[in-house]
Hints:
Elements: H1 8-11, E1 20-23, H2 33-40, E2 47-50, H3 62-66, E3 70-75, H4 82-89, E4 94-97, H5 100-112, E5 116-119, E6 133-136, E7 139-145, E8 149-160, E9 165-166, H6 172-181, E10 182-193, E11 212-215
Parallel strand pairs: 1-2, 1-8, 2-3, 3-4, 8-10, 10-11
Antiparallel strand pairs: 5-7, 6-7, 8-9
Amino acid sequence: MNKVVKNAQEAIAGIKSGMTLMVGGFGLCGIPENCIKAITETDLSALTCISNNAGVDNFGLGLLLQKKQIRKMISSYVGENAEFERQLLQGELEVELIPQGTLAERCRAGGAGIPAFYVPAGYGTEVAAGKEVRDFNGKPHLLEYALTADFAIVKAWKGDTHGNLIYKETAGNFNHPMATAGRITIAEVEELVPAGQLNPMQIHTPGVYIKRIFQGTHYEKRIEQLTES
Length: 229
């Protein structure tokens, strides 16, 4: 039951070029900073990354974009990364943009074993291109397929040696559904405690989904958009 590994380098062992990764977080909140940095220190390439966003220049998934390690991004919001924009416009990066709620549900469905579902979001836009449409209660819906990944990499506030996780506020938005949808899920946590020390009623992701866990270090927790009043 002990799933603890020493560090991010040990945690990402087995990730290979060309694989699909789910990367948790919401904006720059709750992203697995240690694992992302560890990937930049490898020669991995041609990765497909499923993430709420593409990070920013010099941080988050922006670091992988700088090293040309990502072949395809599947995201819902990508507006804060100049390198992402450059690669997209130059045809160096394949991009699939998905409405945010649809992206979250596709990840959740993947973790729940639901192969596909219908959703109204995106009908009548470019998102609908090539997709099956059915009417429900007089409203058109698009057929969307579940998402899974070879590896899911998530970040939690607290975790125990059995892999049970607790997220803090906004960080839980995409981390939990992605944690359930990876064939192998890696969790880095700010605080790692022995099994049995977490309140069972507070656990967001049960340890059954987690294969590897470690305590991260040197978190920056950057602010994506600083707004002052």
